[in-house]
Amino acid sequence: MTIQRLKGNPQATHEAKSLKQEKVPASKPCKVSLNGQVYELLTVFMDWISDQHLSKLKNEESGMDGEKPLPTFASQRTDIQEKCVKLLPLMTEQLQWLPFVNARLHEPFVKFIYWSLRQLDAGTQHSTMTTTLRRLGEDIFRGVVTKGVQDAALEHSVESRPRTAAFFKSTSLPLRFVSTLIVLKTVTQADFLAQAFDSLCLDLQADEGKNLFLQLQAVPVVLSHLKLSSRGLLPSVMDSLLQMTVESSALQPFLEACSCSLFFRTCSVLLRAPKLDLHVLEKLSIILQKLSKIKSNKKLFELFTIHLMLQEIQRTTHPEHAFLCINLNSTLFNLGLTKCNSLAASTNP
């Protein structure tokens, strides 16, 4: 009887087939609103919030006197962080929709995610975010591929060729750059991080890349990997920082961004490591030499006893490592700790 009713009712037959199809997870399509103006409106708001609010990071590492933020500011910061914690899982889910959205809207969307992540830097790590951050990093790294789309207005599936949205592997430098920084903040897999630093080094060869590095306040992101536990990444981390020390309009702003407690504390911990790789030490000495030219940084060298460590390294370094010796001599001279700087003239390669 059931079969006869189905034969006599084409609509029922269609519905029965639809039910069977829905049982196959792989064929389940994504639903997406066809009103692209909604997404344009949202990305305008995201750009506005990113530029005017989320990117206004309080550099709590810049001071040396241990001042705590005012209660009002601390309360506002906590409130912002809580909102970001609620938003990030939703934003991560929305990445799956981006293949259906105009590609020019991807950058403000991903940038909003980046600044939301940066707001969490100074807060307590939320254990509930671990899974979200891991998925976020992997989706940004690999990109998103969606097999089908469902027209919500017509209420039926429309098969189409696979659609993709590339982030870390995008051909757009601004989108690729901010995606790289998200990968560095969220991913723990060594091979992903190695590829991210390789991409960062290449992009920093261009002036646009250097400007993006400054605009996105990327120093803390890179410094989070300048540690012994990331020994395999240390050469790549230093190469990224060294790209910013090449003579350009970005050099002075970069040195100013490094003139903070966070940078000097990180260097101090690294310099205390036994048997630090010579090449890493040489690269670090280049940056420290340039920072020693800024008079106000002398207090930071002294606060973290870096000047004493450099003196000890200078004393024990074999003369055949001339490049390192030259940088050490020049740095100590700039700090007023040596009377002679005869080798400093050839410090900068």
UniProtKB/TrEMBL annotation:
Location of region: Disordered: 1-22
Q: Which domain of life is it from?
A: Eukaryota
Q: What is the lineage of its organism?
A: Eukaryota, Metazoa, Chordata, Craniata, Vertebrata
Name used for this protein in its record: Coiled-coil domain-containing protein 138 isoform X6
**Signal sequence annotation:** none
Annotated ranges, domain Coiled-coil: 46-335
Listed InterPro entries: CCDC138 (IPR038798), CCDC138_C (IPR048750)
In which organism is this protein found?
Odocoileus virginianus (White-tailed deer)
PANTHER family recorded for this chain? COILED-COIL DOMAIN-CONTAINING PROTEIN 138
Coiled-coil region(s): none
